[in-house]
Amino acid sequence: xxxxxxxxxxxxxxxxxxxxxxxxxxxxxxxxxxxxxxxxxxxxxxxxxxxxxxxxxxxxxxxxxxxxxxxxxxxxxxxxxxxxxxxxxxxxxxxxxxxxxxxxxxxxxxxxxxxxxxxxxxxxxxxxxxxxxxxxxxxxxxxxxxxxxxxxxxxxxxxxxxxxxxxxxxxxxxxxxxxxxxxxxxxxxxxxxxxxxxxxxxxxxxxxxxxxxxxxxxxxxxxxxxxxxxxxxxxxxxxxxxxxxxxxxxxxxxxxxxxxxxxxxxxxxxxxxxxxxxxxxxxxxx
Length: 286
Description:
By secondary structure, the chain is an alpha/beta fold. Helix content is 61%, strand content 16%. Strands 1-3-5-7-9 form a 5-stranded parallel β-sheet. A 4-stranded parallel β-sheet has the order 2-4-6-8, with no helix packed on it. Helix 3 crosses helix 6.
């Protein structure tokens, strides 16, 4: 026997014996580990049949399970079976009586193994990309937060006041502006000349969303985390807040909804701040 087949047989045997309920082999058990096939002659009644690296020929009655690992199962015309499971082989069913709970055949061909390997690689690649995206998100939020605290602290203070007093309003403004910008980008993208403008609008909107998320991240960190975080160094507190934000975003479904709402609210927050600055400058000129 090849070493790979031996390892596969051992793995499947241990896996099934660990996962199978104790009641599955509570009765009479007919076993065969390698060598000649296990045989249930006509007229004989057995509770369970287990064959590892061997075939099973059933002409009689098996009340519970016929399990064969790395072998074939032959059900003769007069056989009566309840549940038939073949892992790594084939079931040759000539029985005149159907199995009460079904016949399950799982053959480990090279094609199936390749499919498993491809699926595993895709899953691992997806989680790796997600991990890298999370780390980059934490790094980006931390660095931008540090820059805003040092150079645009007034923006952060005003944003915190707006979030505390009118968060729902900011969400409504962001949603309305998002729809307008989306419609405008779609219309511009229909023409060759408008495509660069649509791209510029998209980039500007994305930057506004990113900068709008920073105050939301800090606001949530100040309200959800311990007050002792304010005593930490600036980078440390920002890192903790960024980890909290990214952790919530990574939650299934809830994270997507949270990120969508945060992005829309962040867009509304930045545009509101720009509008307030514009009104202030206009008053000063008057």
